[in-house]
Design goal:
- The chain has about 325 residues and is α/β, with parallel strands linked by helices.
- It is built from eleven helices and eleven strands.
- The protein has a six-stranded mixed sheet with strand order 6-7-8-9-11-10. A five-stranded parallel sheet has the order 2-1-3-4-5, covered by helices on one side.
- Helix 2 packs parallel to helix 4.
Amino acid sequence: MGPLLSFKNLKLSILRAKRIVLSTHLLPDGDGLGAETALFHYLKQAQKSCRIYNPDSLPGRYRFLDLKITQPWNSFDLWIIVDTNDPRRLGTLWEKLYPRAQQIIFLDHHPEILGAGKIKYPPHASLVCDSKSSSIGELLYHLFYELNLNKRTQKTQINPNIALGLYVSIMTDTNSFRYAQTTPLAHRIAGEMIQAGINPEEIYQAIYSSKEISHVRLLGKMLQGLRVARGGQIAWLEMTLALRKSHQASADDTQSFLNLLLLLRDAEIVCFFREEEDGSVRVSIKSKGRIAINQLAMDLGGGGHEFAAGVALSLSLKKSVKWVIGQIEDLIIKFQK
């Protein structure tokens, strides 16, 4: 990885740049998309030419953000990639765009990637990271007030579009302020964004009350197949690609399924195994907050937060379940010793 940049150096890079492209990772979530929304409108307020281009299309439940996805220029000054520090999570977009950018900055809040030395970062790539932030939205809040790019007022203006992006980023990545990494500042920022005019009820309904009847029936079928280990300390769901397709559900439509397993009284760690179109198996892992699982996810080749992480495996669904659950069992045994 290139150098770790300060906010001051990021400000200099933005001030020098005339053309800026923003991207987030594959299977974009509310944190990445909300951050893109806030940063895009902040940069437009600073009179910068800015475009958003992602490896995946915008999920239907986030259309209210009104993100304008636009093809990037053939060459541009700065590529800011939010909510990941791993180019592999950009899919084919990485190889397509990194030669066209004069400078690349990963803007992230996840811990360092295990085995990052094996990833080939180009010399013009660097990182701005704050792993103490609950979300990219919280990191951007710090960033906006330190950058002060508005030359006319010398003061950051949080307009409704910026407020919407910040709120969505923070609300979704803290699971509505319930995760262990939720900070006091996250609550204060949310309050400020409500004062700035966003409607929390409308946002919540748009994101979480967007299921089709077929998706709820899919959830019911999944819950019937709930599996547990170690007396219920581990609980998981398995979804084949064929089952998801039979219910006309996208990968994003199933993102919230895992959270229901956190309702189980005895569960310490819960998992969701989902077959993807490319033949891989996407594994989402969450802990109730006593047992950290980010190191486990990194050992498996993934990453994430202390109590919420994930990994994509090039194994069959059956082999993925056997391997990951075995690793989690070992983790719980070590924790209880």
